[in-house]
Write a structure and sequence with these properties.
The complex is a heterodimer of chains A (183) and B (318). Chain A has helices at 10-28, 43-58, 110-122, 165-168, and strands at residues 3-8, 34-39, 64-67, 98-106, 127-135, 147-151, 159-163, 172-176. Chain A is α/β, with parallel strands linked by helices and 183 residues long. In chain A, strand 4, helix 3 and strand 5 form a beta-alpha-beta unit. Classes of the chains: A alpha/beta (183), B alpha/beta (318). The interface between A and B is large, with 44 and 33 residues.
Chain lengths: 183, 318
């Protein structure tokens, strides 16, 4: 990876997530009926961290689930590699709940579209909100996030890499050059 | 690993990583079947033709449900009433079907090697749903899936297969798949029903059920093809049950947690006594549930090989 610039360091990621947690509490006036669902991969780790921060703030936790949207993507025919399907683990009903969908980077909006379809097949939530660590722009669908850790204007040829302790051994968000477009 | 095969013709030739890939994918697919909305859009717009030249309700329905749960369009063709009964060759039938541009053809045929013959000539992916006494790969994969789901592993287990090994494509595929993932396999059955070549596939022969029972973690009882035997290899179903059937008394010779499987349909009271088939050690209905998940996994993996040339890089936060 050819990192061009660091957007967030470990403390920056933590601060962004604490702010998002407070915004989730404010928007939903507490945590009643709020559940978090992270998108594989990395959105799931961010969702778990948000869950921990919400527990620290409120003293009570929220259910956290994981969504794999591979079977709902609209771009499989163009994928260089037929992706490996992983498990969706949402072990609680979403019916009537406020679902906060969590992802690391918001880009074209196609993953979120797939996640919306996938969630709807699990039940009928009262509302679906979207939380992302980084919004890098270049939307191809009319989708916007309710909670954004950091807005980062990027060129399409650039890639935003979110590195997390759980998967990468460190917490950083960087812009990388010349890796082609990532959806 | 990335699945790179166009067809699924048999377990022979698959490497262990490919078998595990199917089993892991099937685990995800099984979750879909337990939801209220049992459908995902991944094969929307794909056409699958189920070409069954031999009668089979269970396997055909299992494939059809798998196809529909993935949103593929499923078309069923059976030999009776089709152009085959009017004298058309299999290859001509297949060529005509291919002209309608299906993505996947699921073929059952009494003649070994027919799926391979079609696969070599047609652009569509071909899945072998049973070819004579040769192979039945999705049955073997669903057997492995069922065992792994219950016991958590395949490697290190001892699995017994008992019955008409000689005429069974299930036994052949099971031996290959179980051995590939590191299980020990014992085969047994009435005299004349154990083919010599089975040892070369890696199985050990333990002809008597009483000798096999204490040694195995899982016992797969095979179906006696009453309609095909015609009494040539044993005098009657009743006699088979007496000498070779898995009764409750015989089951007690095995380990306490011994699991019983059967590819179905069960001749109740012949290969397996009703109280065993319906008992707590039976996985027979679990196998049926696993069948849909495994076939969904196979269809998903095969459909990925037929995509347009890569336009852009795969996935990531979007």
């Amino acid at each position: 990876m050819n990192a061009k610039a660091e957007i967030l360091d470990e403390a920056g990621i933590r601060r962004a997530l604490v702010r998002i947690a407070h915004e989730i509490l404010e928007k939903n006036q507490g945590l009643a009926d709020v559940v978090l669902v992270g998108l594989r991969s990395r959105g799931d780790h961010i969702a778990r961290r948000l869950g921990e921060i919400l527990r620290e703030i409120e003293g009570s936790g929220v259910p956290v689930g994981v969504l794999d949207v591979t079977l709902y993507r609209d771009d499989l025919a163009h994928a260089a590699h037929w992706p490996r399907v992983q498990r969706t683990e949402v072990p609680f009903p979403v019916e009537g709940r406020h679902v906060v969908l969590v992802d690391d980077v918001l880009f074209t909006g196609r993953s979120v579209r797939a996640a919306l379809d996938s969630l709807m097949d699990l039940g009928r939530p009262r509302s679906i909100q979207l939380a992302v660590l980084v919004d890098r722009g270049h939307r191809e669908l009319p989708i916007r996030a309710d909670f954004v850790g950091k807005n980062v204007p990027t060129a399409r040829r650039e890639a935003v890499r979110v590195l997390l302790r759980e998967t990468d051994g460190e917490d950083r968000v960087v812009i990388a050059e010349g890796e082609g477009e990532r959806r | 690993m990335a699945w790179a095969r166009k067809d699924l013709l048999g377990i022979a030739g698959l490497d262990p990583a490919e078998i595990v890939e199917v089993l892991d994918t099937a685990a995800t697919m099984k979750d879909i079947s337990s939801r209220e909305i049992k459908k995902v859009p991944v094969l929307r717009g794909k056409t699958v033709v189920n070409l069954f030249f031999e009668a089979s309700t269970r396997t055909r329905v299992s494939f059809e449900i798998a196809e529909k749960r993935l949103s593929a369009d499923a078309v069923n063709v059976s030999a009776s009433g089709s152009s085959v009964s009017k004298g058309e060759t299999l290859l001509d039938t297949a060529r005509n079907l291919q002209a309608m541009n299906p993505d996947i053809i699921v073929l059952r045929h009494s003649c070994p090697g027919t799926p391979a013959m079609l696969a070599a000539r047609l652009p569509a992916a071909v899945v072998n749903a049973g070819d004579g006494a040769h192979e039945h790969p999705t049955q073997a994969l669903l057997d492995l899936f069922t065992i792994r789901e219950r016991l958590g592993r395949i490697a290190g287990l001892t699995v017994g297969i008992f019955g008409d090994i000689a005429h069974s494509r299930v036994a052949r595929s099971d031996v290959l798949a179980l051995r590939a993932l590191g299980a020990r396999v014992l085969v047994g059955g009435p005299p004349g029903m154990i083919p010599p070549g089975i040892v070369e596939l890696g199985a050990e022969v333990a002809p008597r059920l009483e000798a096999m029972l204490p040694a195995v973690d899982v016992l797969i009882m095979l179906r006696i093809q009453l309609e095909r035997q015609g009494g040539a290899l044993f005098p009657s179903a009743r006699e088979y049950a007496t000498h070779f059937g898995l009764s409750a008394d015989r089951l007690r010779l095995g380990r306490p947690g011994l699991l019983v499987m059967h590819p179905g349909p069960v001749n109740r009271g012949v290969e397996v006594a009703p109280e065993v088939a319906d008992g707590p050690q039976s996985l027979i209905l679990d196998q049926v549930t696993s069948g849909v998940a495994v076939r969904m996994a196979v269809l998903y993996l095969l459909s990925g090989v037929h995509r347009a040339p890569a336009a852009e890089e795969g996935r990531g936060g979007a």
